[in-house]
Design a protein that fits this description.
187 residues, 87% helix, elongated
Length: 187
């Protein structure tokens, strides 16, 4: 009976991590949209600078068109990120509640977990490389707070996705052990 209890714990953990994956995916989208709107003037300036420095005249390319296309690409990326989070979370919940075993979501969760770990590594490097001087102290502090918050979000996302992966694997192993145990008792 201990195996049954452990399996239920793994399935509960899987369900919780699935819901967490959906929530963190939604939060990533909201955070990106908020950051985007807070920095839209600097993004527009950056796009303008790119085209000014590339030698393309404003008559050849409308900066508004380029900005619109950039916004659409970012929106498409956000939809993709949330769709992946939603797929992983729903598959995890379906396996935990209905026993539907799929493998693609586990591969996606594992890959995304490792990408978040890599993002954490890059975040640590960028925080470490910050230099604080008196001329831009306020900007540096705000930038470092943003980077620390992003690091914590990435770390949480990695933890949830890797916990989801290991909970699914553990529950599958325990299910197989229970099946073998029941088959042995029937003989």
């Amino acid at each position: 009976m201990d195996l049954q209890r452990e399996r239920r714990r793994s399935l509960n953990s899987l369900s919780l991590c699935g819901t967490g994956a959906i929530g963190l995916g939604l939060w990533s989208v909201i955070k990106t949209i908020m950051t985007f709107f807070a920095n839209r003037n600097s993004i527009a300036e950056m796009i303008s600078d790119i085209y000014t420095n590339s030698g393309v005249s404003e008559e050849e390319v409308s900066l508004k068109t380029v900005a619109f296309i950039t916004y659409l690409l970012i929106l498409a990326f956000l939809v993709l990120v949330f769709s992946i989070s939603l797929y992983v979370g729903k598959c995890a919940n379906a396996e935990a509640k209905k026993g539907k075993k799929r493998y693609l979501y586990l591969i996606i969760a594992l890959l995304a977990g490792f990408l978040y770990i890599y993002s954490c590594y890059l975040g640590i490097l960028s925080i470490r490389d910050l230099t604080f001087n008196e001329a831009s102290l306020t900007d540096d502090i705000n930038n470092s707070i943003d980077q620390i918050a992003e690091f914590l979000l990435d770390l949480s996302s990695a933890g949830v996705l890797l916990a989801l992966f290991f909970s699914a694997i553990r529950s599958r192993i325990l299910s197989n052990m229970i099946s073998k145990q029941e088959a042995a008792h029937e003989l």
